Amino acid sequence: MKRALARWLTTMAKRVTMSPRGRVLAAIADGEQHGIDIAHRAGVSAGTLYSLLPGLEREGLIHRGWRLTPTGERAVYTLTEAGQRVAP
Fold first, then answer.
1. Residue 82: pLDDT above 80?
2. Which of 15, 52, 71, 73 is deepest in the core (most CB within 10 A)?
3. Which of 5-14, 17-26, 46-55 has the lowest mean pLDDT?
4. pLDDT tens digits, 46-75
């Protein structure tokens, strides 16, 4: 348990010192996520996130898919193979 906590704290400390772009990639590396969840995990505003996502998608680092929820379709994001290679 202590090891897992130490590893988690180290990961979080690294994310704090990363650029917003790096924090977004690191958050998406945790698995398929909705935009607002990525923003919270990365510690960036929704405006910052949604300005970064199109560029990351154009660069081939992330993939946007769609999932049906009770309130309608929502975009979800995952890392591509290229994104997995560069994500912190």
1. yes
2. 52
3. 5-14
4. 999 999 999 999 999 999 999 998 989 999
Name the residue ranges covered by the structural domains of the chain: 2-86
d(C-alpha 43, C-alpha 77), whole Å: 17
Contact in structure between 43 and 13 (CB atoms under 8 Å)? no
Distance (Å) of CA 52 to CA 19, 20, 33, 43: 11, 9, 15, 13
Beta-carbon contacts of 78 under 8 Å, excluding residues fewer than 6 positions away, are: 28, 31, 32, 62, 63, 65
Backbone phi and psi for residue 67, each to the nearest 5 degrees, phi listed first:
-130, 140
**Phi and psi at residue 79, to the nearest 5°:** -80, 145
Annotate 28-49 with DSSP letters as a single string.
HHTSSEEHHHHHHHHT--HHHH
Decide yes or no: CATH 1.10.10.10 for domain 2-86.
Answer: yes
